[in-house]
Write a structure and sequence with these properties.
With 438 residues, the chain is of the alpha+beta class. It contains 14 helices and 10 strands. Helix content is 47%, strand content 12%. The strands form 3 sheets. It has a 5-stranded mixed sheet, with helices on one face. A 3-stranded antiparallel sheet has the order 3-4-6. The two termini are 28 Å apart. The structure holds adenosine-5'-triphosphate and magnesium ion. Magnesium ion binds next to helix 10.
Length: 438
Amino acid sequence: MSRSSLLFTKRNPKSVVHLSGFPGIIPVRGMSSVPPKKKTWKFRPLSTHSTSRASEDLAYYGNKKQTAVSLQALMETGLGNRLDGSDTSPDEVNFSGASERVKIQIACFLHRELPIRLAHRAVDLENTKEFADNRHVNNVISWYKTSFKALRACPAPTDAAKEEHFASICADMYDRHSHTLITMAMAAHELRNKLGKSISEFATARAIQQSLDDFYKSRIGIRILIGQYLALRGNRGPDSDPTMIGLISQKCSVKDIAEKAIRDARYMCDRVHGDSPEVHILGRTDQTFPYIPSHLEYMLLELLKNSLRATVETHGVDNMPRIKVVIADSEDNEDCVIKISDEGGGIPRSNISKVWSYLFTTADPAILESILAEDSGPDFATSSPLAGLGYGIPISRAYARYFGGDLVIMSMEGYGTDSYIYVPKLNDKQLQSRDFLS
Ligand SMILES: Nc1ncnc2c1ncn2[C@@H]1O[C@H](COP(=O)(O)OP(=O)(O)OP(=O)(O)O)[C@@H](O)[C@H]1O
Ligand SMILES: [Mg+2]
């Protein structure tokens, strides 16, 4: 699997105005919602004037509350079940993608919501003192500002033509931000060098960890919202999976996704070590639930890569104990739990807290250096290294937590590691009443 196909990487709260509360077409707040600026009679060159206006606009939006959206709301909106006066027939997504009314409904919501989320990110990054004057972070901030301005300049997508135009702005935005992960990794690396810390010391810097956790959580939300909208607009051929609503599968199969992740991880391991351990899938292989398959695939691939690497490095290629993927679930369970279990020698207790850091890796430092070399460019395909950046675990946990799940790692040094992915089930009543995507 190519990481580039994932939402998080490339291409591809809390005052809550829930999507369910929206009328068919959401009234869009235009420039008039910005408080009037103080009049000044002192002459200022136009460029300074417009720059300060743009900053005020950004600051204003950066103070507005974000709207949380649940997975349930995304699914129902995609099916056209939340249109005003609609019957609730789920035929709004057909071969030519979502209906015009659904597209306009979602576009109007995004037109109002995305500037708020983008402004939050830009303002938060600007206020993170650890990253002050970091050229990589400044690049990321400039992408957020460019996208913010493009959205603010775009008319409300209240008819088909305007919606089409809005979609092209969203597609550009999706691409513009596609290098964010690697750029933020460069930023963290540069900061670490500036502080003169080792990777291990840097991994315990709490403030940086917290600000990166917040940043990636928010980034996942933004990319889900845009990705879902663009996916719903796409044409669906007769061979399209009828259980897919945009990015969301109504019947996500852990077994199918695990099989693909195993193939990709073993391919990557074979390439480095010439062989790879076997991986067996056990437990409820028949289980399906509503989820975003690309998120589950990302988590499984990252955890499997780690287990394969640890197994080969501990045992060599001639005597590799097999790795197990165990799926535990039943109708009454709160979560579907997936365990990836290896006998790869485990993680020393002193390193357990560091594995959640965005730069902690025990791979050869030369790999990190080469990934982060500016001219090499990001390559997150299966041709990327088996390990090296130190992002696999923290980003996987960000995905798992996004919809109220979690990632937990238990390790026995000298034996092996068990990683547990908790996926909350959408049909759980508690989940339906909760809002995510902050
Ligand atoms: N199953 C495991 N067995 C032993 N060590 C592990 C295991 N999983 C993770 N680790 C340790 O945790 C570190 C961080 O893992 P993480 O996946 O976040 O980054 P990485 O594998 O080094 O690089 P990448 O971003 O390419 O995945 C690894 O370098 C390794 O030392
Ligand atoms: Mg890894």
